[in-house]
Write a structure and sequence with these properties.
six-stranded mixed beta sheet; globular; Restriction endonuclease; 12 helices; about 35% helix; 20 strands; nuclease; endonuclease; alpha+beta; McrC
Length: about 425
């Protein structure tokens, strides 16, 4: 019997106590650990603590759904799940966008089912323009010439019946490696789905691929698929299929393990989410543009090369110089603590940015409370010669994930 748990990132799953998992089940996580990202799990006294990751982990018969811990006061799993999915869509980690009641309905589904349904939605969209078809060589005994006559075979086969002609020809077919890989992936996803609704969606797509040969598909089969000008628009879908299969069947040095790992690093996801919103907000504001992960400069030099490379999360560039730098932090900050509880290392980092890039405004962007609008919560003046300003912003992820705007101070005036 499968045991399902829904936890928040950085939460601990009890081991050997009521409401948790058994030591034998914990051993399954130990076997899976080599296939997991570093810092995803940490072994603590009588428990397994999860790091800043969200998604789905399965070890043996235990399935963990990890949701973002956005606000201590908000324990609504559907809302956290919906916010995470919206962040994944904004950063192109998930595909087709939806709205209205369909999106609200999906928020109640387990994350794995949402990943599967999202994949199916992308398949449906692509199939509207037709499945991938390729020319394949055929040989058949026909009543009319098609392609070229195979004289040798025709002489052997039709020595008595002269009404037929043995031909060799090329014919477009959907029964090819790409569609076989797609059908194999969908077959796997149907097996892993927990939702009858999602299983039905997968079954409907499989029915549309009835003409395609069924065969077992692995990650290497998909990774080796060739694409040309006519099929290249399918490439992102097969990359997603590869990610799903790799997560559903992770490998360790000792071979395959009975587990699943489909997770996202929340620190990188939050950075990507804010970056996407920021780029959209500054779009069309030439010569201003947002540069991601750059421009890269060195903080120091040696006699031979640069040293201590700097790489800002987001920089506002006006074509000549960097005007502002934004640094996204997937951390908690506390309005009641001195300096909002901001780590000194984060301020040291921004001081280095302001000094090296010569900009007079740098900013920290944190996730804020679900019941407070996105806003500028404070400012500091750095006591260095140019006296740049450090702005501290808190963003309401629940609002942003539903089309809300960044604080006005982060956008063009």
């Amino acid at each position: 019997m499968i045991a399902h748990f829904t936890l928040r990132e950085r939460q601990t799953l009890a081991v050997g106590v009521s409401g948790g998992i058994s030591p034998e089940q914990a051993n399954e996580f130990a076997r899976l650990e080599p296939a997991l990202p570093p810092s995803l799990i940490e072994w603590v006294h009588n428990g397994i603590r999860f790091g800043p990751f969200c998604g789905v982990i399965r070890a043996g018969n235990v399935v963990i759904e990890l949701l973002p811990k956005i606000d201590d006061r908000d324990d609504d799993d559907s809302r956290a799940r919906g916010t995470l999915v919206a962040m994944l869509r904004e950063t192109s980690n998930l595909g087709v966008r939806r709205g209205g009641t369909a999106q609200l309905e999906m928020q109640r589904f387990h994350l794995l089912d949402q990943f599967i349904e999202d994949f199916c939605a992308s398949v449906t969209t692509l199939l509207r323009t037709g499945a991938i078809s390729v020319y394949q060589d055929q040989r058949d005994n026909l009543t009319a010439v098609r392609g070229r006559i195979d004289l040798t075979s025709n002489t052997k086969v039709n020595v008595i019946d002269r009404s037929r002609i043995y031909c060799e020809y090329s014919e477009r077919t959907v029964d090819n490696a790409h569609n076989q890989a797609l059908k194999g992936t969908l077959t796997v996803l149907r097996r892993f789905s927990n939702s009858s609704t999602v299983k039905g969606i997968v079954a409907a797509l499989l029915h549309r691929l009835d003409e395609v040969t069924s065969r077992k598909i692995g990650v290497r089969d998909i990774a080796g698929l060739p694409f040309d000008r006519l099929s290249d628009h399918w490439r992102p879908l097969f990359q997603r299929a590869e990610w799903l299969l790799r997560g559903l069947f992770p490998d360790t040095r000792n071979g395959p393990v009975d587990g699943t790992c489909l997770v996202f690093n929340m620190e990188r996801l939050f950075e990507g989410f804010i970056s996407s919103k920021l780029r959209r907000g500054w779009h069309g504001q030439a010569p201003n543009r947002i540069i991601l992960q750059g421009p890269q400069l060195h903080l120091a030099t040696t006699s031979e090369r640069g040293a201590f490379k700097l790489r800002p999360d987001m920089a506002l560039h006006d074509g000549e110089a960097v005007r502002r730098i934004f640094d996204a932090k997937w951390k908690r900050f506390d309005r009641k603590r001195p300096n909002f509880g901001i780590a000194p290392a984060d301020i040291y980092q921004l001081t280095a940015y302001a000094s090296r890039y010569g900009c007079d405004q740098v900013a920290l962007v944190f996730p804020g409370r679900a019941d407070v609008a996105s806003e500028l919560v404070g400012e500091f003046t750095l006591t260095v010669p140019s006296r740049p300003q450090v702005q501290v912003y808190a963003v309401n992820l629940f609002d942003l994930s539903r089309g809300g705007r960044l604080p006005s101070g982060m956008l063009p005036s």
